[in-house]
Structures are given as C-alpha cells and as structure tokens.
C-alpha cells in the first residue's frame, strides 16, 4: 500500500502537481513511517512550493532515519538555502559530499550555498539599476504570463535565484551568465532577448557521446623548493590506459550506431564494458542498440546491470533514469496483454523519481492508456453480455430493479455498443426514480442507433415524467421520423399536446405552473430566448401592441421561439 501511494506521489510530482504529490507521500508515510525515501520525496515537493520550513523538517527526518544516505543532505541543504541559512546549507552539502564525493547535485548545491554565504557577508554595494523591476507586485504575474519564462517557475533553483535578487538586487551580477536571468530581464524590461540554442537531451535511441579523458590538474609552480615529480604506480597507469581505450571503443560504437551498423556497435560497446566497468553509459548505449534491433530481453538485462552498477558507483541520477526509461520502453514492446504493461508502468515511474524527463512522462502516459484500452478489449464478450442482459430482463419482470441494473451494467461492460442494454437500464432507472441517469442511458441508446424506436420512447417518457413536455414532444416527433407508425410514439405526442394545451388554457394549479416555470428557467435554450433583445421586444408587443405582435408571428423563427416559451409554461396564450 505504501509503495502504491509513493508511486502516485512520484507521478504527481513528475507532472508538476506538487500539492497532490505531498498528499500521496503523506499517505505513504502513515503506512511506512520509517521509510527515509518518503520523507525525502515529500521534502522535495515542499521545496518546489517554496514551503522551506516543512521541507527542512522532512529533510531532518530523512537524515535522522538514514544518516549515511547522501541524498538526504542534498534535501537538507536545499531547505536551508531556501530559508536563507547559507552557512547551515554549506555544512549540510559538505557532510553529504563526505559520504558521496562525486555526487553532482551536492557539488552544485554547495557552490550555490557558498556563493549565498559570501553575499551575506559582503558589504552592501551601490544600488543596482535593475532593483526596482524585481520589486514590483506584478513580477510573478509577468513571468507566469510569458511563455518563455513560465516553465522556469517549476524549477526550485530558478525561484531561489529570483528571490535572491529580490532580497539583494546587487546580486544580479552573479546570475547574468544564466540564460534564464537574461530571459527574465527581457520580459520585465519588455525587450526581445535572443533565445539560447540549447540542444534537447535525447533519451533514445542516440547513445551518449564519449567522455574526454580527464588529465590530472596541474599544480601551480611554487618558488621553492622545486616540486618532485609525482610518481604513478603501474597499476594506476594501466587503469588510466584502460579507461582511455574504453572511451575510444565507445566513440567507435557511437560512429557505428549512427551508420546503423548495429553489430559492430555492439562489439565496440562490449569491449568498452570489458575495459572499464566504472562507466554505465557503455551499458546504456548497448541497451539502445538492442532496443533498436528488437532484442528486448538483452536490452532489459543491460538496463538492470546499468542501474545496479550505477547505484554502486553513485552515478548521476539522469544516467540511472535513462537506463530505467529504456527498460520500460523494452517492456512495452514485449507487452501482449494488459497485465504486461504493469512492470513497464512501474519502471517509468521509477525513472521519473530519478529525473523528471518529459519524454519519460509521455511514455508513462502512453503505457497507461494502452493498458486501459487492452483491458477493455480483453473484457469484451458479446455472448456473456447477452446472458447478463437476459438475467436483467428476468429481474426487471420480477420488479427487482436494483438487481436488474447490476446485470445490465455488467452487460454494458462486456459489450458497450449494444443499444438495447442502455434502453433496458434506462427503464430500470425510471422505475427507481433516477431520472437523470435514465435520461443519460436513453440518449446513449439513440446515439448508438438513431433508428431504434425504443430509445426515443424511453427518453420521451423520462422527459414527460420530469414535466418537460416541450422536450418530450420534440423527442417523440423525432422518433416518428424513423418509425412513423409506432403507436407508443404517437401516444407520447398526444399526451404531451394535452399537457401543453392544459397549460395554455390555465387548467393547471398555480403550484404546478410555478414548478414548470422554475424548471424551464434552468433550460439554457429558454434562457437564450429570454435574453434575446428581439424576443424581449416581441413579448412587450404582445402586451402593448397586438398588431405588431401579429406581424412578428409571421416570422417562422420567432413563432418557433414563442411556441417553446408557451410549451414551457413561460408564456400563456389566451
């Protein structure tokens, strides 16, 4: 149960519905109060809404439950930074890096925290010329309205950047290298800014480019004494050579992939994996080739290895998310029934918890839609539908209407294209007094088969019981177009005309007239007629200028509208 609530929270978070995500994570925490990941996820959701106090409380709980988990300190640092406690944020990020020195998110957070701490200790410089534009009350409204900046509002670091500039306008110089800040200035100053030419990250099937070999950083020369050359062991030298060779194999694999020489690409990626097992991109690239060539089982195996190895190496979350997304894609390709989509959907949800990627979210939505469609197809069975309909008919004859409704509903699920079942269930709803539900079924019956007379008699009868005699009359008349000799339809027309004439002659009680008028006033068509300036003038002429009123009645459209008002009891002809 907790995992299900967590999955729903992850899906809501990935779609940007942070309040909903908080609700699901809270539900999961009630079921599993010692699960540190749940507090971490809810902390991220709170931070996305700038509710940093709550984010801090959850982050503290995360590190309390799992003090050796580096990601918890990333949450803690982000919460402190959001609250303006830069020094505490620095300490949190440094503690996390002590557990995972290669963690990219912690490194980036530490750099932001140190910059914020430095700004808080720096003496106040001169006033910034941009200070006023960030203090206006319509700042957030402008950023929300402009399509170039609207998407940034979902990014916590962007919100923090703007809030920082609001607190200290002179700090804008620290962010001018950020293209998002340039877009913000363009929107606030009403100046057209040149858009960046960022290349979108591709998830599949393009493999990742090879990483250049990193050379050891050169030490600054010291005046004295002359530094001794660093001795490199043979093992370390050999390891570096193997890494360099692995990168070359990856480059060769990428070139072969682009040429669609998939077998050669697989050979190069396999060789790279043998040379260096510390880079999971070799596995994800080979998985991309397997996916392209239809070897879905091999793709899944490589993705599982990449995720497992990535966890051990504390690899970038984006790389792990990419492996999970490719696995989910392969599972979708293998799916033959609705249940086969469940592991694919679960895998996409896990990928989104690692990294929010629009392509992964689209794949998740497509998989959920395909699963639902297959479920409907698998459940479709006209033979069982007929059996359920007959059971419903027997119960209807026994006046067991609620039980009959259950069987008719099952028949519809088994065969949603049979108009007879909707007609029968509409009759049940009428007997139970559930007129809106019966009317909906009668309309669906007519939609499926416009020539089915029973649908019109059901719909007309319900409208008659609802005292909507004008609408019932139209329904019966429409049915007679398809079946001119249907006695039930002709009787319905006669009953409606009798009721309308009674109203015109004033032969109904004031209470009934008032009820009919009140119901008619809720009809959008009646409302439109009464709000029409021309019709208002026509009604005035009926009272004050009978000769002009007679001229109006020569207009077929006006005559039709007057008849609608008369049938509804709004206007009485004497």
Would you kindly provide a written description of the structure presented here, covering whatever features stand out?
With 574 residues, this protein is mainly alpha-helical. The protein folds into five domains: 120 residues, Serine Threonine Protein Phosphatase 5, Tetratricopeptide repeat (Alpha Horseshoe); 40 residues, no CATH class; 140 residues, Tetratricopeptide repeat domain (Serine Threonine Protein Phosphatase 5, Tetratricopeptide repeat, Alpha Horseshoe), CATH 1.25.40.10; 126 residues, Serine Threonine Protein Phosphatase 5, Tetratricopeptide repeat, CATH 1.25.40; 58 residues, 434 Repressor (Amino-terminal Domain). Helices cover 71% and strands 0% of the residues. Helix 1 runs antiparallel to helix 2, helix 3 runs antiparallel to helix 4 and helix 6 runs antiparallel to helix 7. The longest helix is centred in the middle third of the chain and has 25 residues. It is elongated, with a radius of gyration of 36 Å. One of its GO terms (cellular component) is cytoplasm. InterPro entries: STI1/HOP_DP (IPR041243), STI1_HS-bd (IPR006636), TPR-like_helical_dom_sf (IPR011990), TPR_2 (IPR013105), TPR_rpt (IPR019734).
Fold blueprint:
Layout: H1 2-14, H2 18-31, H3 36-48, H4 52-65, H5 70-82, H6 86-99, H7 104-121, H8 139-145, H9 147-150, H10 156-167, H11 179-189, H12 234-258, H13 262-275, H14 281-292, H15 296-313, H16 317-334, H17 341-354, H18 358-379, H19 382-397, H20 401-414, H21 419-432, H22 435-448, H23 453-465, H24 469-482, H25 487-505, H26 510-520, H27 524-531, H28 533-544, H29 546-552, H30 556-567
